[in-house]
TrEMBL record:
SUPFAM superfamilies: alpha/beta-Hydrolases. GO terms for molecular function: carboxylic ester hydrolase activity. Coiled coil: none annotated. Keywords: Hydrolase, Serine esterase, Signal. Residues 1-19 form the signal peptide. This is Carboxylic ester hydrolase. The lineage of its organism: Eukaryota, Metazoa, Ecdysozoa, Nematoda, Chromadorea. InterPro entries: AB_hydrolase_fold, CarbesteraseB, Carboxylesterase_B_AS, Type-B_Carboxylest/Lipase. The keyword Phosphoprotein does not apply. Residues 32-386 form the Carboxylesterase type B domain. It comes from Meloidogyne incognita. The keyword Signal applies.
Length: 405
């Protein structure tokens, strides 16, 4: 253990030394922005919608979690020589196109982040700006930092350094298995959360070279990203990494709630049951060895799409040490400011006008479970027309129930 700690300190020292010894002009010969990171030099580009903004996209904050690094804690990205172009979004993390298809998109090599700042901030050591780190939503199974509407230019134009991050999703981010536990007893999934924490550490170590203040970092997100940001406020692994959380439509954590059940972290046993059952559903043996497990293709792992919605964070005793109630009662949460809110009609931005009676009943059953019959009595539908008419009412109620804190 002591040797591992010494190695970590040595690697951190090398990264900091590389960062401190890096000296480049803030602009290239073509006027493109240039900045130093602990892994090497990056070249960005001018903002598209805001002329006073520059961005750096697709910066690797960790080594690719591929091959024998699948389902392991993130480690530092390899250093590079020369100047790395950071003008395009990095690959999104593995996911299906939507919940109803088995078509896989993205890459396992996806641990990238994006920084939006202003030209005069790069390399400046005086009057650093506050930093906002955005964690995207998507039920922990979909989405990316490049999703439309989250590019960060507008916020950077107002004097806030904006950072958006990718993290492992679905079964690559929240899968657990006895063979993995034997390999590393402290890990029970939560690789996606570990990615988020590692990205925040990277930002804290590097953001000063982009004009950001490492002592004024706020973490936030929407939906699953909001839930993640709150979980980080409870995690000892994220202690002293940020000062505040902005939770946008996170909902609340109520065990046994017929609607919010999917927001409550699994126990280790629940997570393992879900993981093993999923392996069976895609024709992978439950007792597979760890080496063979890492050889299974993502196409095979993602054969069952609907079941991918079940992945959640895990009460593992490591990333999340205790239940939220226990943490709050003992007062051991991270000492950060928290701002919570919700988006109006969160589920109703683009409600379908063509809902069938069958879809309406299934939607009520999936979300209200044991109370589905009671809901149908209160909001009855006898045909497709009445189902479509009542669907928006269902959306509004779910929005209020799930996302208002």
């Amino acid at each position: 253990m002591n040797s591992l700690i010494s190695l970590f300190i040595f690697i951190t020292f090398l990264g900091q030394a590389r960062l401190e010894n890096c000296s480049v002009p803030s602009k290239g010969s073509d006027n493109s922005p240039i900045a130093c990171t602990e892994s090497g030099i990056v070249r960005g580009a001018k903002g598209i919608n805001f002329p006073n903004v520059v961005f750096f996209k697709g910066i690797p904050y960790a080594a690719p979690p591929v091959g024998d690094r699948r389902w392991k804690e993130p480690i530092s990205a390899e250093n590079w020589d020369g100047i790395k172009n950071a003008t395009n979004w990095g690959q999104l993390c593995i996911q299906t196109v939507n919940q109803d298809t088995t078509k896989v998109i993205g890459s396992e090599d996806c641990l990238f982040l994006n920084i939006f700042t202003t030209p005069d901030s790069i390399g400046r050591k005086t009057n650093p700006k506050p930093v906002y780190i955005w964690i995207h939503g998507g039920a922990l199974s979909f989405g990316s930092s490049s999703a439309g509407g989250w590019d960060g230019e507008a916020m950077a134009s107002k004097g806030i350094i904006f950072v958006s991050i990718n993290y492992r999703l679905g079964l690559l981010g929240f899968f657990t298995h006895p063979a993995l536990r034997e390999e590393n007893p402290k890990l029970h999934g939560n690789y996606g959360l570990l990615d988020q924490i590692f990205a925040i550490k990277w930002v804290k170590n590097n953001i000063a070279n982009f004009g950001g203040d490492p002592e004024r970092i706020t973490v936030g997100g929407q939906s699953a990203g909001a839930i993640s940001s709150l979980l980080l406020a409870f995690s000892p692994l994220a202690s002293n990494l940020f000062k505040a959380v902005i939770s946008e439509s996170s909902g609340a954590f109520y065990p046994d709630d017929p609607i919010n059940w999917w927001m409550t972290p699994y126990t280790v046993q629940e997570a393992e049951n879900v993981s093993l059952n999923h392996l069976e559903s895609v024709n992978v043996k439950r007792d597979i060895t760890v080496d063979k497990l890492r050889d299974v293709t993502v196409e095979q792992l993602y054969q069952q799409t609907w079941k991918l919605r079940r992945w959640r964070q895990i009460l593992d005793g490591y990333v999340i040490p205790l239940s939220f109630k226990e943490i709050m009662n003992e007062g051991i949460q991270n000492k950060v400011h928290v701002l919570m809110g919700f988006n109006y009609d969160e589920f109703g931005a683009s409600p379908s006008n063509n809902v069938t009676l069958e879809q309406y009943k299934r939607y009520a059953a999936n979300n209200y479970r044991s109370l589905a019959n009671e809901f149908m009595k209160l909001y009855p539908a006898n045909d497709d027309s009445s189902a479509s008419e009542n669907f928006y009412k269902l959306i509004k109620i779910l929005s209020i129930k799930i996302f208002i804190n």
